[in-house]
Amino acid sequence: MTTTDVRPAAQELPDQLFIGGEWRSGSAGTVTDLNPATEEVLAEVQAASAADVDAAVAAARAQLDGEWGALPGVERAKILHRVADLLERDADELARLEALDVGKPVGQPAMLDVPNAIATFRHFAGWADKITGQTIPTAGYFGRPTHSYTVREPVGVIGAITPWNTPLMIAAWKVAPALAAGNTVVVKPAEDAPLSTLHLARLLQEAGLPDGVVNVVPGRGDVAGTALTTHPGVDKISFTGSPEVGRAIQIAAADAFKRVTLELGGKSPQIVLADADVDAAVNGTAMGLFFNQGEVCAAGTRVLVHRSHYDRVVSGLAAAAEAQVVGDPFDAATTMGALVNAEQRDRVLSYVEAGRAEGATVVAGGGRPDGAGFFVEPTIVTGDNGMRIAQEEIFGPVGTVIPFDDPAEAVRIANDTRYGLAATIWTRDVGAAHTLAAQVRAGAVWVNGWAAIDPALPWGGMKSSGIGRELGWSGIVANTEEKTVTVVL
Ligand code: NAD
Predict the structure, then answer these.
(1) For the CA of 465, the nearest atom of ligand 1
(2) Shortest-distance atom of ligand 1 to CA 229
(3) I need a labelling partner for 267 at 20 to 30 A (CA). Which of 141, 295, 309, 381 fits?
(4) Predicted TM-score (pTM) of this structure
(5) 157 lines ligand 1 (CB under 6 A)
(6) Are both 297 and 314 inside the same structural domain?
């Protein structure tokens, strides 16, 4: 199968705004959506203006006091299960859309993005009728007994702003918990990959979600995104993207004390201890570098290796890089696709150059293949943790391998970064696993496996990797306000 065989007819692609249950044009022109593997135009997607965002927020607000606001959790759960059923029905099509729009090999969204989105809707369907409070004993009120309890209420209208790397999955991470808790949502997908989120909107409609509960406003970040973050009718922004935009959103949200959840980037360490299963570690660290072309917030881009294994891991990762099959996302042999756009490709290559200038050694890759498409070679460099390639998020298939002499040094290097999203530890020593898990400053620590994510597990970062947590019960907490009620008896 080739890209041309699977490309849906242009009129089938969802390319409009979804507001109040209606599909309509935007009033800010269009945004050109390219196929990263061919550089061909996939769609001219309608772009939302501030007025369009205003209409979407009005539709979402109306439902807080409307049919949706009155719906009990058990009924919300049924709708979320129906969405999961429809995602299952359309799983192949969604995987194809994601591969077309993002440039990733189609087997990857079929294996991760789509099943994870389905599991996320099912997980939060399970919570929808189980969001409980507490009864809390107190000392009483001026000598009179009291009965105090808490309830969790929806925050209100959630503005969800998503990136292009795993768009369906991240939209699901924001929409499913928001709906489970009774909120309404306006989603602003990324300019480069809005199609799967728009398809999700079709499925939400088909599942019987009342009009206006979820609205999707594709468009430019500085237009539609800014309109959403500054809108007085939005109670919370849930953002996944770069630290720079996250900072701007937090500042904009401060004006009205909007709640924010920020899921930002990372420069995650993968630590290979002296007692590690080295073959498993090489396979796992390679996956943490090259999966999704390295366009993963939790990519394990700093591979810290005990000096006794350093040469073996460097040559193993170089061999893994050379073994990657880079090319057509729809060829079953392909293991790595294209980066999302020309700017991202050039940014990645410029980091490799910066590494060379600082004295890093490129042991595999480092360039780009000839021909169309925003491809970059899988790249392994050796260097030290002070270099820009080891400190700044590259968001591409580039890993820096750094030696250490003892676990304390590994932890020091691991924590010597502005980021704190994830860390992987490769070891057969259960004591070392727990000790290092406690010492590494990261929102998620994985032992002997990279990216063991699950909708039941809280997700988010420390330091510049973000604020707040999504998923699991934490996702419900993030989408509710806690109210205390005291009755003086
Ligand atoms: P980005 O920050 O450029 O864009 C993310 C979203 O924000 C897009 O929808 C964009 O249109 C919008 N946006 C841009 N400017 C805006 C503004 N001024 N106001 C409001 N919205 C605005 O990020 P990206 O390039 O799409 O994604 C890559 C980044 O996302 C990387 O830094 C990566 O690490 C991060 N990321 C983090 C996670 C996580 O869970 N922590 C997951 C995936 C990606």
Answers:
(1) 41
(2) 20
(3) 309
(4) 0.97
(5) no
(6) yes
